[in-house]
Request: fold
Amino acid sequence: MFSLFFLFSCIAINHSQPGKIAVSETSTECTLCIQGTYMDEIASKVNCIQCSPGTSQPSSGQQNCQDCSPGFYSNTDGSSKCKNCPVNTYAETPAHEQVCVDCPIGYEASIQSSSCTLCPAGKAGTPCVGCLVGQFRGSNDLPTSCIDCPSGFYQGAEDSASCLACTPGHYQPESRMTSCEMCGLGYFGNISELLNCHLCPPGTHQDMLGQASCMPCIRKFFFVLLFLVECVVECHVVQKRTHNLSTLV
Reply:
């Protein structure tokens, strides 16, 4: 009876407000529940209740705890403040009780995030990192890593979403390259073949680098060993052709 008297005295003095407890069973004084705790009954317990994981209470004298918002978490009892989800982690739902979830590879998140964002084209990994020269990643490609430009293609810029095809007169037999090579003298390159250049066919020539076609040779007639040789070809990069002999000079 004696302790109940003092407990009810505490109630009367403090106007029966939740969030407070009696200092002791023999005290007429009440005290506020501290941060991270609460009391939802009217001075019915000596000890305040700790906030459970996933909740917090930043103020004293409260009758409940607050759920952590998405992007925050609390994994201990008695939290006065929910913790931020670190960069590249997330908490999708409120009242998250565990540490935040890591973003999958190819996604990233800023601090306090409730979700992760897919890496934009030209970037990959976690955190999202720009593709190097000679590489690419398109919006429909897996975001886990960048892709090497294939043979016949190149890319000289970083953060690229695609590779560029070698232009006619150029070629590239290697992958992950930053430029294409020019076709040499006596050769040409077209759009159908990006890995190699082609030798100019008989009767044509090419005396410039990086060309998409060959030019007809100038034809002349002259006598060799008293025989008329048919249209001997004379070019800067020369192919001479007779009835029974083909040589390069």
User: Anything to note?
Assistant: The longest strand covers residues 227-234. The chain has one helix and 28 strands. The CA atoms of residues 150 and 175 lie 5 Å apart.
